[in-house]
What we know:
Blueprint: H1 3-11, H2 14-18, H3 22-38, H4 41-45, H5 75-131, H6 136-200, H7 228-239
Helix pairs in contact: 5-6
Amino acid sequence: MTQEELDALMSGDVGDIESLPEEEVAEESVEDTDTEDDITEEELVAPKAADDKPAGYSEKTAHHWPLPATDEHKMVHQLDDVTKESEEKATEIFDIIEGISNDLMENEENENKVMEVLNSNIELFTTLSAKFPDVEAFKTQLEKNSSAQIKVIESLETLQTSGDSIMSVMDIMQYQDIHRQKIERVINVMRALSTYMNSLFEGKIDDDKRVSSAQHLPGDKSGDIASVDDIEALLEQFGA
């Protein structure tokens, strides 16, 4: 039953229902047929959407729909997790870097102590070799200590270079904190916009006290027409 038939029945002009032009009935039948023809084969084959998903939702059309408002898809919630996890991981990285830096400094101190011993030995064996040139042991020990001194110098240079690299890494990691602050600024803007939009659409009447919206209005084109049972129930309410 169409909206016009329902209006005629509500006004008491039952005869108007029968006097409706047949052309209008035929046009409505054609529109219903065209609507059915517009349904593609994919839509018929597509599985029915779950209760929490909009009508027409399927795996093939999922990219056309926004993601459901779950904790995994809430933008601010996700950004908060990113900033929190990023800060935690950055702290762990800084702790590891600091441990490596401390080890390098300790090794450098040990190498400097070894260097002091080698310098003392070289000075001693140089003096002994000059006073006792015929003693080969003094010359041999002098050469060994001189060779060890060169290796220790190379080791110290490597430790210093590694220390400089660690400092460069720590400087680069400072950008992580800048990125975190930028994300937090985006979160604050999003929250401010959310608060503003909520205030903008705020009403004076609670939603549970509002009149329910009409499902059919004059001029609507919909296949969801009131059935005879719905009309009889409506008439019973008016009779009561």
